[in-house]
Amino acid sequence: MNLPFSVEEFFRVFELYNLSVWPAQWLLYALGIVAFIFAARNTNSSGKIISLILSFLWLWMGGVYHLAFFTATNRAAWLFGPMFILQAGLLFWIGLRMAKLPFRPRPNAYGIAGAILILYGMVIYPAIGFMLGHRYPAAPTFGLPCPTTIFTFGLLCWVDRPIPSYLLVIPLIWTVIGSFAAFQLGVWEDIGLLGAGVTGIALILRRSDNRS
Question: Cα–Cα distance between 166 and 188 in angstroms, integer?
């Protein structure tokens, strides 16, 4: 599949985004850390706080990255933006309004997989990118679609109850779309997105089957 933009144009979007929103990247990264801490502590308010953070991150990706920046390079971003905003609404509704996302990491396959994906999205992803020569500002930072989708899959692995299957549809769609970057644009850190999608969805659906 031929992409409607070049490698240089693709990384130029990251550069324009990072320079324009600075220092918002620090806030987005801090929100990821806060979500991780609340999940690990498992307080009464953890589920709603984490859901609110995830909802904000998906709203940011849809409204700020896709609609405000990526549309100038790829017209498909006019579709991606609303899609991500819809995912933000689903996370808000299910996690806050319905309170159906209790995040409780446990020492089992779900807990280990979730921890690996969270670590990959926040630490390993940018480290691999740096080693491959993807240097700031022309590099994907946390709060952008691929690393944040990996991070989302990690947290959803920590939800201690079956998750509505429709909550996984948009992350799965982006896993397929975003994984093309690894093979066609040389963003090899995005291979982790494919692994996150396969692992996360398999485990989450398995949990649903076991409790149905």
Answer: 28
